[in-house]
């Protein structure tokens, strides 16, 4: 009579499963990948960070110190969308600062004056007389 296989607990997820062989200790390919990854990290001494995803709030483990999302496709897309909006806002601010600064530059400097000296003084807030900088 054939021996009945005993159910085992998965070494990763702790679920019961019916092993296909006598040496199988994980229930699925996903758990196998997780176990291999964990063994590799342990062997290399890689530091593992326990984080919470800033998008969905789920806890996750990572070997990257600066990772802030869990890595799901939805969270990655949302995070990239947020970064794009943030970068656009910063770019608009930089353009506005450049426009403001260009308005204050003395474009009507006489040809006889030293333009670099006047520009330096203007940028420091010490604008020479009105003949050199009409904005002063």
Number of helices: 3
Helix content: 40-55%
Note poorly predicted spans: none
Mean pLDDT: 80
* Range of strand content: 5-15%
Rg from C-alpha positions? 32 Å
Offer a few descriptive terms.
single chain, two-stranded antiparallel sheet, 136 residues, rod-shaped
Question: What would you note in describing this structure?
Answer:
There is one protein chain. This protein is mostly helical and 136 residues long. Among the domains are: 46 residues; 32 residues, no CATH class. Helices cover 42% and strands 9% of the residues. A two-stranded antiparallel sheet has the order 1-2. Strands 3-4 form a two-stranded antiparallel ribbon. A hairpin with a 6-residue loop joins strand 3 and strand 4. The chain starts with 7 loop residues before the first strand and ends in a 12-residue tail after the last helix.
How are the SSEs placed, and which strands pair?
Blueprint: E1 8-9, E2 16-17, H1 29-44, E3 49-52, E4 59-62, H2 73-103, H3 115-124
Antiparallel strand pairs: 1-2, 3-4
Summed up:
Among the domains are: 1-46; 105-136, no CATH class. It is built from 3 helices and 4 strands. The chain is mainly alpha-helical and 136 residues long.
């Amino acid at each position: 009579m054939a021996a009945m296989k005993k159910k085992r607990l998965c070494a990763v997820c702790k679920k019961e499963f019916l092993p296909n062989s006598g040496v199988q200790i994980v229930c699925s390919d996903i758990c196998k990948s997780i176990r291999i990854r964990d063994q590799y990290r342990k062997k290399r001494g890689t530091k593992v960070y326990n984080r919470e995803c800033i998008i969905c709030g789920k806890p996750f483990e990572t070997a990257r110190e600066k990772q802030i999302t869990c890595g799901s496709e939805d969270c990655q897309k949302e995070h990239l969308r947020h970064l794009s909006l943030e970068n656009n806002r910063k770019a608009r601010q930089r353009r506005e600062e450049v426009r403001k600064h260009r308005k204050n530059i003395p474009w009507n400097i006489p040809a006889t004056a030293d333009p670099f000296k006047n520009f330096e003084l203007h940028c420091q807030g010490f604008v020479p007389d009105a003949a050199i900088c009409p904005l002063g």
